Each structure stands twice: as structure tokens, then as C-alpha cells.
Amino acid sequence: MASALHQQNSTPADYLGGLPAQLIYPGLLLAPLVIAGFVRLWRTPELRFVAVAATVVVAYVLAWVPGKVYYTDGMAPAVLAAGSVAAERWIARGRRPRLRRGVVVAAPLVGAAIVLPAVLPLVPVGHVRDLPASSQHSDLGDTVGWPQLTRAIAAQDAALVRTGEPPTSIFTGYYGEAAALDVLGSAYHLPPVLSGHNAFWMWGPGHASDRTVLVVDALGRLRPYFAGCRLLTTYYAPHHVRNDWTGIQIGVCTGPTAGWATLWPHLRHYG
Predict the structure, then answer these.
(1) Which residues have C-beta within 8 Å of that of residue 218, sequence separation ≥ 6?
(2) 110-157 pLDDT, tens per residue?
(3) In a domain? residue 206
């Protein structure tokens, strides 16, 4: 997993932006609080172990996966808590404590007002396509289209049932697609949902049949192991949103060269 993440998140731009991103990721305009938190943790003997842990985590992310800013999230509560104590003392020793308090309170509120429309579903879904590409390929863009994708897959499942070729399992290329079907697909009585992506692979194929597999975003992965695979349709996210879950191929594979149990070790992939 670490190797796959390194390959995908270690471009020169990732390295150049890694440290600034770490400082502002907990909250725009909160960089002074983050720095103050680190300093206080290092200067407090009984809390220095937290400073060591936070430094190791941040150093690892900056050195190996600088593009994965949020991989340091686990240390943020401790650092921000320490920074908040430092901020309280900074306010108390100032000549104008009310002004300092206003600055400390206003900074996260202003930062949130700037950032939230780009990271949370606050804008109408029909306007997401007008946002920068970076916002569409983000958590915000990823909130668009899961029910529609589930319905598209369920429609293909129903069509195959009508033609006498009912799918006996569904295999997806990524865990997000499998999770959407697990969460949203119960009303459609879909066959078992499988995926070889990341930790989803660890759950294995269970007792799912491999006779006729409805394939979501993974035709290339299954084609070497089945006698026949064909494309059924391509799903596009609604409202012309260009997120990471659009242009997804939905197909069907039949005639497995071996059972799921034998194929499963070959279907694991990380990213």
C-alpha cells in the first residue's frame, strides 16, 4: 500500500507543496496555531512524546506521500489542543486581550468561509461543474452521483436477468464503487459485491459464484481470467460533473479460467 501511494503521491509539485499544505490543512489561516502547538508540545517534558510522534508522522508523510496531506490527521487534535493553550496564554499577556481574542476567533471562521464551499456540498449540485477541476476531483466532487451509479448498475443487472444471463456476482475496480452498491443497492436485490481494491480485498469472495460477473470499472483486470468479457454501457456522473467516478465502464464477464478462490490473489491492487 505504501509503495502504491508513493508512486501516486510523490510528484515534484507534491513535494514542493507538502509542508505548506501541512500547515494550512487543519484550517486555513490556522498555521500559527499549528506551529505554536508543535512548539508547546516540544517544550513540555510530559508531552514531548506526543511531539515526537507527531513529528515522525509528519516527516514520514512529507518524505514518502506528500500528496496525501490528510494522512497526518491523527495528530491534528493533539497539536491544535496544544496550540490553543499557547493561544490562551498569548491572549492573556497582551495589552489588548480583546483584540487578540478576536483575531484568534476570527481566523478559523474566515478560513472556513473561504474553504467550505469548495470541500462541502454547500453549493447546488448543478453548479459543481462550474467549480475548478481540483474541486470536482475532491471530496466535494465525490459526493455527486453514487445513487445514479447504483441505479445504472442495477439496470444492467436487471437487463441481464431478462436475457437469461443473470449475474451471480458483481466485481468493482475500486472500494468506493463496491461500498456504494453495499449501502445503496439493497433495494435492487443485487448479487454479492466484490472488489480487489485496498482493504476490500481482505474480505475475499466468500461464497459468491464466478459464473457470470457484472463488472464495474474493472474489465481490464478481469479480462485475462475469463473466456469472454464485453462492455455493456458507460456511466457518466450527473450534472456534467467531472469527478473521479465518471466515465465508468460497466460490463459482463463469463467463463472463468478458475474459481474466485484461485483468482483472488491475482486481483488485489492498491491505490
Answers:
(1) 171, 172, 173, 196
(2) 988 888 887 788 889 998 998 888 888 888 899 999 999 999 999 999
(3) yes
